Amino acid sequence: MCLLFLLPCFAGAQEPAYTLTGQEELQGTDVYSLLQDTLGNILLTTDRGLLRYDGYGFHTFANSNQKNASLFGLCQAGDGQIWCFNLSGQIFQFNKDSLHIWFGLPDSLLSSSMVLQPDPTGNLIVSCRRLIRINAQKEIEFIDPDRTHIYGTPFLVSAKGAVMHASRDQPYVFISTRTHTDTMGFADPNHFRSRVKTNNLAGTFDHPRLNRQNDLEVYTLREGQWTNLPLQLPGPFGTNFTHKMFLPDPNQIWMALVTGGVIPFDTSGACTSPGGIYFRDHVISAMLKDREGNLWLGTLGSGLLLIPNSGVRQISLEFPSPREKVRNLAGSAEESLYLGTSEGNIWALGPDRRLRLLHHDPEGAIRFLNYYPHPPTLSYATGLHQYTVHLPGGEVSVVPIPNSAKNHYPYPDGLAVHPTSAGIYFTTSTSFPARLRQLQGFLELDDGLATIQGVGRCNAAWWDAAKAELYIGAGTGLLLVSASGQQEITWQSHPIIAGSILSGADCLWINSPQHGLLQVKDGVVTRKFYLPGDQAAHEIRSMTLHGDHLYLGHRNRIRILDLRTDSIRTLDRRNGLTGELIYDFLVHDQEIWVAYPHQIRIIPLGPNPTNPVPPLLRMEEVRVNGDARPLAGAYDLSYQENQLEFRFVAAAFRHQGKLQYAYRLLGAGETWQMLPFQNNTVRFSSLQPGDYTFQVRALNEDGTSSRTLSIPVRLAGPLWSRWWFILLSILLLAALIALGFLYRIRTIQKQNAIQRARQQAEKDLIDSRLTALRSQMNPHFIFNALNSIQEFIMLNEKKLAARYLGKFADLMRIYLNHSQKKTVLLSEEIDALRIYLDLEKLRFEDSLEYSLTFDPGLNPESLSIPSFLIQPYVENALKHGLLHKTTDRRLWVRFRLPEGADPAHLTVLHCEVEDNGVGRQKAAEISQSRPALHDPYATRSTRSRLELLNQGQDQQAGILITDLLDGEGQARGTLVVLRVPAQSTLGR
Fold first, then answer.
1. Which of 523, 565, 556, 560 is closest to 544 using CA atoms?
2. How much is the CA Rg of the chain, to the nearest whole Å?
3. For residue 375, cis peptide bond before it (omega within 30 degrees of 0)
4. What torsion do the CA atoms of 927, 932, 937, 943 make, to the nearest 10 degrees?
5. pTM of structure
6. What is the distance between the alpha carbons of residues 344 and 362, in angstroms, rounded to a whole number?
7. Smallest Cα–Cα separation from 643: which of 699, 603, 682?
8. How far apart, in Å, are the Cα atoms of 326 and each of 12, 160, 365, 597?
9. pLDDT, tens digit (0-9, with 9 covering 90-100), for 217-226
10. Number of other CB atoms surrounding residue 121 within 10 Å
């Protein structure tokens, strides 16, 4: 069955490998001119204005008085001044990150086509409707005033200021100086209606145009003679015509086509593009060769094409489906390449760079693709089937193995080995060789198909026919099967999972994801190769042997191991790889062809091209404590300004991300520290006072170093490190010490006074307790109590006399016991009050009624109060309130919690003593008519004791006496409210 479909698809000519810069930033932006400034930046005039690219990003510059956004015609003078213009006649000068209007042309000189060029003396030559010279004083001088029909014809300025130009209606070329104009004849003046581009006055004067027969013509001026340079166009030129010509160097001519792409020629007129037109998908509008030799191509709407000067080429692939991507590469670069894709297609790429579909399998992506020249065949597999294509006819046959194949290894006499997901299969077109039959104990032979049993999933295999040995890369390890048995090959007692097996001259090369690259001889690992780089760089995706070199494909780089010297060379972005995932590669002669999803990149295998051009390094910004400072040669900073930040930029573009920065801070260390290209900022925090020098330099992809930038920084010491501050500090310290001594003396004196006051207060408190004890045990009370008991004895009330005598003894014992304590339990105080009131009730002949109550939340057993504090007010209520009544004598003593108080953390207790006596006013009148029998304790001693208890306390004790009145305003008793210091005893 022949499945060679005649379905040609355009693949694209071989063209220089390039990277697309600004694909997002410049999308939809038309680039009109390019220039590299003295700092190494790339400047662009576009329909968005002036842009600058420094290798990190694009920055836009505009002027608020700019009449339209589109700018054109970048040019640069010898002193670095840069000019451009817009079609409104505004000429702009770009200087120090500022775009300002330098000159405005009058309307009479405006033209749709203008050209700017500075001359050596600082004037600006402008070709507009006339050819003029504008000096530094902004004065206009007409060049060759006799000829007015210039209309933007390009010109050339010599080293001495002479201007070569042409008129649209005269068959001459003019060379004008300040004093006179010379003419040079030309055969056809109509040639000058199109654009003229020159490179130097002494060399050539080149002019492209399309004549009536659509022939592209270039004329050169050599030794005063105009010569037509015959261009050798690649194939029929058709309706294409050029809109610009570029001379990147004296040996190249690039013609940009209106319909897209460019055609390169050499100085003999030969086309240097093997496939014709470069970059068909881009309309090239500007070109620049930078100081490193890179070519920049500006486009209309699709960014900048950057072409490193490395000889790398690429073939763009355009499949019918945009989803289709290259996965495998095989074949001969001289004849036909064969591509396996993600859509299950096998394409042939012929020398004409057109794709032809050989086979399609709808089951999925191509798993592997191998090309064998003798006889020319292809072997490949998809998800379920393995195929063989016999070239050149393209007949396809299905390989009869029942499982998904991982690879295919052919041998003489039609034998092939197939590692699959279910084991190893042997197929043959004739019969199995005798040496293979030596593995009869491990093989199942069945009608041209042999199977190795019990090895499970396999990734790779190799059959050594000379020794009748089979190496199997199984999912469990690397196995060696021979007639004598089966053994496992290990590395340092660890199993080897082989991703692929490659046969060398006298050994096998094993690619192991765990162990990297291993060499195996006679069933033993004889060597492990340690590859430079990080762990990810050790992952080998594919291997191929070409001559004395072993090629190892990684994710985004290729390593070349020289088997004679064991030296390792790495191909990466510096050599023309894109940095993207590499799907496959093949080596042809002195080139390596690398497969990417939609292109094939061709890398020369000669010596690595080196870049001797040092990067242009400049300091971009200096920050101190986070604030930007003007750039200066040195910095003198204060002690607090100890946080420094340096941002620098190196203008270099060929490095493809491999540029590095080296920096150090002399005064803090001598060792150079390295930074990758993306990190162009260094920060230093909390620097100590001293003299420092920050140094930085840039190293390109080949280690070529820029000049070293050095910035001295002096960080002043703090004030306290200066002599006058030290002297002042000593004097101040002496004064502080003296003041400290004085303060200490006064503090001790104050503490002694407080101690004496505390001792005096303690003494006064003891005295007050004794006074209270004397008051409670006053002779009048004792006499009255004993007199009442005597009366019971005389009346022969022995039981009453004994009971009251016992209460009197208990009360005396309680008083004596309380006199030795500062505080007593509330329950003890209540018991003492109850006994005291019982004895007083006897005195009042049972005409006294009293009650002792406390709030339910109070626990008298767990609350302590000062001793001898409540009883005097109870006694005062009896003596001055109730004694002067004959009947209905009532007394209430209530202990209450303050509102919102917590009983567990109580500091103050409210005690209310209420009587229904005659009142304070009546009692005072009675007291004045009678001699005093004892001191008024309640109004004198108790108050002084409360004042002593209040010293140093947050919660102050106190007393509040209220006269109780009836509805008619007559006294009906007295209420005394005591704020008594209290303390819970539960936590003790």
1. 560
2. 55
3. yes
4. 60
5. 0.65
6. 6
7. 682
8. 15, 57, 10, 5
9. 677 766 666 6
10. 13
